[in-house]
Amino acid sequence: MSAVRRKMSTGRVFGALVMYIVGILWVLPVLWMVSTSLKPESMIMEAVPRWIPAVFTLSNYQEVLERAALFKWLLNSVIVAATATFGVLAIDSMAGYAFARISFPGRDVLFMIVVATLMVPAQVTMIPLFFMLNEATLLNTHLALVLPRLGVAIGVFMLRQFFLSLPHDLEEAAAIDGASRYRVFVQIALPLAKPALSALAIVTFVWAWNDFMWPLIAISTQDMYTLPIGLSTLAGYYGREYGIQMAGAVIASLPVFVVFLMFQRQFIQGIALTGLKG
Amino acid sequence: MKFSGFSKRVSDAIAGYVLLLPFLIVLVVVVLYPLIQGFYMSFHNWGIFGDPVWVGLENYRQLWTDNNFRSSLWHTVYFVLLTTPPLVILGLLLAAGLNYPFRGRTLVRGMIFFPYLLTVSIVGIVWRWMLQRNYGLVNYYLGKMGIAPLGWLAEARTAMPSIALATIWWTIGFNLVVFLAALQDIPEELYEAARIDGAGPVKSFLRITVPLVRPTTIFVVIMQVIASFQVFGQVFVMTGGGPYGSTRTVVQYLYEQGFRYFRMGYASAIAYVLFFIMFVLTIVQWRVMGRREL
User: Residue B30 gets which letter from DSSP?
Assistant: First the structure.
């Protein structure tokens, strides 16, 4: 018995050790990014790479902020991701509630159509969307970036599941007291859905923040770039100036890092609930 | 139940439609209508100037013989094959390892998950630097092991595996979280019982964990194949489809045709073929993996 326990515990220590090593391996590229960004341009390409810069400098940060409209891109990203998040929460919670709690003719067919749209790859709708928005002269606007995000049905699906799991009692009591459906939804159901809503919010925010292909297509001028698009152009303009690129990358990862530290739990919940990639 | 009575039921049904309306309108405008419009476009020569010309199935016929399209399809399949097994297997192994309590577990989870939050351009430029031929970190450490430096992204042989490596680093945290959620539903008593019967960690992983997370594994595999099939950003930032088109994937080709040469009809046909392939793949996977379930 004690032999077994000893074996188990050495097994555990070994397992923990392996996990530490993997964890460290996984952050190395991030550390290298930070380290490179803090080195003077002349010391970045060295025969023997140094993890800790021999000379610390912020010149790369200064350069990238002077040469690229990084803050403008950051602002665009914030506007787009925040608007998309609020929009998704508003329309998805209404639709999710209606699907879960109200019976009306055609509900099940409509729900099947909504779920079926989850199978459509985004690239299929991008070309006609580009064309439509071009006709409406809405290309190269924030709205053009927000709109397609609002049509993603995963939030409706997820909130419907959540509302289905809520007990009926409260809503029924309110209905007996003469409250309308709308009041029941706003005053009773929505407050109860807070955990699901915050999980959906954080996931939607990060996905919208990281959108790449659609902004690449829909945005044509530098001042409208979102952060991902702007950053990708840095690689083209400053091909071998890795210090500048890494400084840009560090600045762009900071907001996500902060959001992650603040909302780690909600984010993980959001993924576990939706299980969708991007 | 309590929303009963005829007039009550009618007003309730109306409330249902009213609450549904905003989402449905958006869905029609940005998904359903474009879906039909795109299909229609795929039967035309559709440029950005001038009127579209109906060409029937010509775009699809041309795709059938287009060597660039064929190679892009193969590159995509190659990428799916390179990324799916490690992302699923490693994801599950890491989840199992991080499900055991140990000091600093939350921190390690965060360290592995964090890259998933980075935007693809950051992933791309960081790995371009890591994989750089003369001063990149990867070649330096391989050099210490006596391996001659490689231009990872500049050679057709290694470019796609390099993109796959960056992708695994980037997205494994996602699968890790999905698997962790599934593992937490497995009752601890099962492992306890196995332990008393003298089963080691390997045996309980194979006999308890793997079978019990099976539905999640199926789900993750399908989602992973779908995601990998649509690879674009990493390729765009890291190689732009090169060298010599060796990393050009289907979506990259669609982008080039549709938005660089503005051959919208042709690009729409590519999109529909992609849609069709992904649809079939999903159904097949569902069938094959679902069937073995006892």
Answer: I
Is B284 a member of any domain?
A: yes
Asked if the Cβ–Cβ distance from A12 to B100 is below 8 Å, we say: yes
- Say how many domains are in chain B: 2
Please state the ipTM of this predicted complex: 0.90
Alpha carbons within 13 angstroms on the beta-carbon side of residue A179 total 16
Q: Would the CB atoms of A16 and B100 count as touching at under 8 Å? A: yes
Find the CB nearest B38 among A49, A97, A124: A124
Asked if residue B277 and residue B242 are part of one domain, the reply reads yes
Task: Choose from B2, B18, B19 for mutation: most chain A CBs within 10 A.
Answer: B19
Query: Are residues B39 and B84 part of one domain?
Result: no
Tell me which of A260-269, B88-97, B257-266 is least confident.
A260-269
pLDDT in tens, A69-84: 899 999 999 999 999 9
Length of chain B: 294
CB-based burial, B87-124: b 16+ in 10 Å, e otherwise = bbeebbbbbbbbbeeeeebeebbbbbbbbbbbbbbbbb
The pLDDT of residue A1 is 44
Residues 6+ apart with CB under 8 A from A51: A31, A32, A35
Peptide bond connecting B243 to the previous residue in cis, omega within 30 degrees of 0 = yes
Residue contact B2–A209, C-beta within 8 A: no
Q: How far is residue A166 from each of residues A84, A89, A193, B10, B173, measured CA to CA in Å?
A: 26, 18, 9, 24, 30
- The verdict on B178 and B46 lying in the same domain is no
Q: Which residue type does A124 have?
A: V
Mean pLDDT over B4-25 rounds to: 89
Range of the domain at B19: 6-54
User: Do B12 and B49 lie in a common domain?
Assistant: yes
Mean pLDDT of chain A: 89
pLDDT at A227: 93
For residue range A157-177, what is the model confidence (pLDDT) as tens digits?
A: 999 999 998 888 888 888 888
Asked if B199 and B181 count as a contact pair (C-beta separation under 8 A), the reply is no
For residues A16 and A9, give the distance between their C-alpha atoms in angstroms, rounded to a whole number: 10
pLDDT at A259 over 90: no
Q: Do B12 and A104 touch (CB under 8 A)?
A: yes
Query: At how many degrees (to 10) do helices A194-210 and A154-165 cross?
Result: 170
The overall longest dimension of chain B from CA atoms, in Å, is: 82
pLDDT tens by residue, B137-186: 999 999 999 999 999 999 999 999 999 999 999 999 999 999 998 998 88
Residue A46, Cβ neighbours under 10 Å: how many? 12
